[in-house]
Design brief:
Elements: H1 2-15, H2 31-42, E1 47-51, E2 56-59, H3 61-67, H4 79-82, H5 84-87, H6 93-102, E3 106-115, E4 135-147, E5 153-162, H7 164-180, H8 186-200, E6 205-211, E7 218-224, H9 231-235, E8 241-242, H10 245-257, E9 261-262, E10 268-275, E11 278-285, H11 293-297, H12 299-329, E12 341-348, E13 357-365, E14 371-381, H13 383-402, H14 406-423, E15 447-454, E16 460-466, E17 472-474, E18 487-489, E19 507-510, E20 516-520, H15 532-544, H16 551-566, E21 572-579, E22 584-591, H17 597-611, H18 616-636, E23 641-648, E24 651-658, H19 672-686, E25 689-695, E26 698-706
Antiparallel strand pairs: 1-2, 1-5, 3-4, 4-5, 6-7, 6-11, 7-8, 9-10, 10-11, 12-21, 13-14, 14-15, 15-16, 16-19, 17-18, 17-20, 20-21, 22-23, 23-24, 24-26, 25-26
Helix pairs in contact: 7-8, 7-12, 8-12, 13-14, 15-16, 17-18, 18-19
């Protein structure tokens, strides 16, 4: 093969009409130039000989790969024309000019160039524009003057080696270090490693392998090079599957030797890690080819970075799961619904730290048929704040069921907060000032809260705020016919937080059909170095462009849009209460973690949708989405999942909530691409709204479809449009 490639370079030189070039007939070439050309032809590296003041190009076959479509027309042409796109770069043309004029060699150890490899020579000697092969690359280059008998420079011998892959590997390691610095969970660390290892090791697929909870077994999460994940799919937990015996044997060899395993053909690379007190490994599937030296060189820093990050993440996960579980168990597992009122909530813990927060929400029916709701925040963080939050939430129910008037509820809760402040152990101070022996909170326990009640039939609502951020009101289509904006903050009086004596006046408003009230905690708005009104302005901008949706999708959209625009510095919760123009219907089943459950779930959904008189076309869309979500739950959770369908004002909302084990082996031979790359993308494409939310108990994935009634063929209505 090498001889064949060499013969081509020689053939081009032998059959070219050199008399038509500045070099003149080949027979008149100086022997020094012939010798330099012989060196270039035989060299295995890409070499070009740039001859004379016009820099006429002769190059070997290794060099032609750098030229792409420019070859073979570039042979014997001026380098100024062939690489015109980069010739004016100070590290290109100027270096050759100096080397020729001053007989000065050069060495450039790293230059970034965009070579238009798609350019072609036209019949009139011009060159076309670049094409699909154009790309940015990095190159190691040297230029050595070729001197004639009289010391005159005849040519510049140019050796060039593309280092793009090596630079990419080095950058992947640097990127790995930066991303691991903020990756705190085992899932986060593994996702970062899978992405960066693909670049650093030229992987076709990469598998992160961790010990399984069961003795002497391994689990793996895999990423393929061609797999493209959306932000929603990235938020989901990784799919873990059992490791095959062959791969487990390779990992065992690497761990036993304490060094990477390289297969003879370079197709498999296994890199072992020490993660805290345990072991882990990264397995890369490559194209069968010798492993480049620079790939081996990045293994050591990769091992150190990943091992340290995994060790931290294992500890973090244990602490964070406990903290999240504490807080989430103190929040209501479900919110009540009625024929005329729908309600939904979203809670998002801050990604930093392993302590619980004090954010809470709740909703329940009062004896007179009204729906009470509350959202609040205990000042401070940690186990104590979460525990106080649970006590305050329970006290809200007791006070409201006794006397639902806002002033009575707030007064009762004031007493609860005062008592908690006095009785809490002195060893667990809430504020920044440490308590002395014999002291409790020392007057530092405060709770902000928004409390309200709404009549489902009339939409009449009463609100009261104890130092809590103003809620937002989203106006429906009918309400906006008089020129109202899409959304606004409710102008209402705000009293002092609970724990500080004062008046919290009641505020009355009417929730029209299609309107929605949105309450939230201050973590949604407040950012360091910003005034509160800046956060409120961001929220109003998001409300102005808010797409139509149910309380569930509205809460999801507001939370995501606010956190994406300004980041998250504290736990936050959103509670959305909407007045529906039609009756709300719900049906739910529990789905076992078995492949045959997918078909059973589809059959159940078709029967339920037919009973609700949903159009056949919408039925097919919804059933398709359910099939993908149940398949996803079976693969990544391995536990039973709860499938719920809601029909509310022309919107069918589907929710699949699992209680996933977050990392145990689940399915032998599971194909990640079939789930992550296709399933969820399909659901997002066919649905009118889509979301995924991870909790300490598992993962919730949902979608909504605006449906039509089969009898009329018209939309059954909808939320704000």
């Amino acid at each position: 093969m090498g001889e064949a490639r060499t013969r081509e370079a020689r053939r081009l030189a032998a059959h070219s009409d050199w008399s038509a070039t500045p070099l003149g007939p080949r027979a008149l070439w100086p022997p020094q130039l012939e010798a330099a050309w012989e060196i270039a032809v035989e060299c295995p590296l890409p070499v070009a000989l740039l001859c004379g003041r016009d820099f006429t190009m002769l190059y070997n076959d290794a060099f032609r790969d750098l030229l792409g479509a420019k070859h073979p027309a570039a042979f014997g042409q001026s380098a100024r024309k062939v690489v015109a796109e980069v010739w004016d770069d100070p590290k290109v043309g100027a270096l050759f000019e100096r080397a020729y004029a001053e007989a000065e060699p050069f060495l450039d150890e790293g230059v970034e160039l965009r070579l238009e490899r798609g350019r072609r020579a036209t019949s009139n000697g011009a060159w076309t524009a670049g094409g699909a092969d154009d790309d940015v690359g990095y190159y190691l280059r040297s230029g050595s003057p070729v001197l004639g008998a009289d010391g005159e420079v005849l040519a510049v011998l140019h050796v060039i080696v593309e280092t793009t892959s090596a630079i990419g590997r080095a950058r992947a390691v640097a990127r790995l270090a930066a991303l691991l610095a903020v990756a705190v969970t085992v899932d986060d660390v593994c996702k970062v490693v899978l992405r960066q290892a693909m670049v650093a090791f030229d992987g076709l697929s990469v598998s992160m392998c961790l010990p399984s909870p069961s003795p002497s077994s391994w689990r793996m999460a895999r990423r393929h090079r061609i797999e493209q994940l959306s932000p929603d799919e990235e938020r989901l937990p990784l799919i873990w599957s059992e490791l095959g015996e062959d791969m487990a044997s390779i990992i065992a060899q690497a761990i036993a030797r304490g060094e990477p395993y390289l297969s003879d053909n370079g197709e498999v690379v296994a890199v072992p890690f020490r993660a805290g007190r345990g072991q882990a490994a990264l397995v890369i599937q490559r194209e069968a080819a010798p492993v480049p030296h620079d790939v081996v060189a990045v293994m050591a820093p990769f091992r150190d970075l990943v091992g340290d990050a995994l060790g931290r993440a294992v500890v973090y996960d244990a602490e964070r799961t406990t903290a999240e579980l504490l807080q989430r168990t103190l929040l209501p597992p479900n919110l009540p619904q009625s024929d005329a009122i729908s309600i939904a909530a979203r809670y998002e813990p801050v990604s930093e730290g392993t302590v619980a927060g004090g954010d809470f929400y709740d909703s329940f029916f009062l004896p007179d048929g009204r729906l009470a709701f509350v959202i609040g925040d205990v000042v401070g963080r940690g186990v104590m704040a979460a525990t106080v939050m649970g006590q305050v939430r329970a006290a809200v129910r007791g006070a409201a069921l006794t006397d639902s008037d806002p002033s009575s509820v707030m007064a009762a809760l004031d007493r609860v907060v005062w008592d908690l402040d006095a009785l809490w152990p002195a060893s667990m101070p809430l504020g920044t000032q440490r308590a002395r022996p014999g002291m409790a909170f020392g007057g530092e326990l405060f709770v902000t809260m928004l409390y309200g009640a709404v009549d489902p039939d009339s939409g009449e609502m009463v609100l009261a705020s104890a130092g809590h951020p103003l809620p937002a009101l989203l106006f429906g289509r009918a309400s906006r016919q008089d020129g109202r904006p899409r959304g606004t903050l409710v102008e209402m009086p705000v009293g002092p937080p609970l724990g500080i004596e004062g008046v919290r006046p009641a505020h009355h408003l009417s929730l029209e059909v299609g309107d929605m009230l949105v309450g939230f905690t201050d973590g949604l708005l407040e950012r360091r170095g910003e005034a509160l009104d800046q956060g409120e302005a961001r929220l109003l901008e998001i409300l102005a462009d808010l797409p139509p949706g149910s309380p569930r999708s509205v809460a999801h959209h507001i939370m995501d849009a606010m956190l994406q625009s300004s980041g998250q510095e504290d736990d936050c919760a959103v509670l959305a209460i909407g007045r529906s123009p039609a009756g709300h219907r719900r049906s739910a089943i529990v789905v076992p973690p078995m492949p045959e459950s997918v078909r059973a779930a589809r059959d159940w959904a078709r029967e339920q949708l037919a009973e609700w008189e949903v159009d056949d076309g919408d039925q097919h869309t919804i059933v398709t989405g359910i099939s993908e979500l149940i398949t996803n739950a079976v693969l990544h959770a391995g536990t039973e999942s709860h499938l719920t369908m809601d029909l509310d004002t022309g919107i069918v909302a589907v929710t699949v909530a699992d209680s996933g084990n977050r990392g145990e082996p689940l399915l032998t031979g599971a194909d990640t691409m079939a789930v992550r790359g296709r399933g969820l993308s399909l659901v997002r494409a066919i649905a009118d709204a889509f979301g995924a939310h991870r909790t300490s108990a598992g993962t919730t994935v949902w979608f909504e479809v605006v449906v039509e009634v089969a009898e009329t063929g018209a939309p059954a209505g909808g939320w704000t449009t």
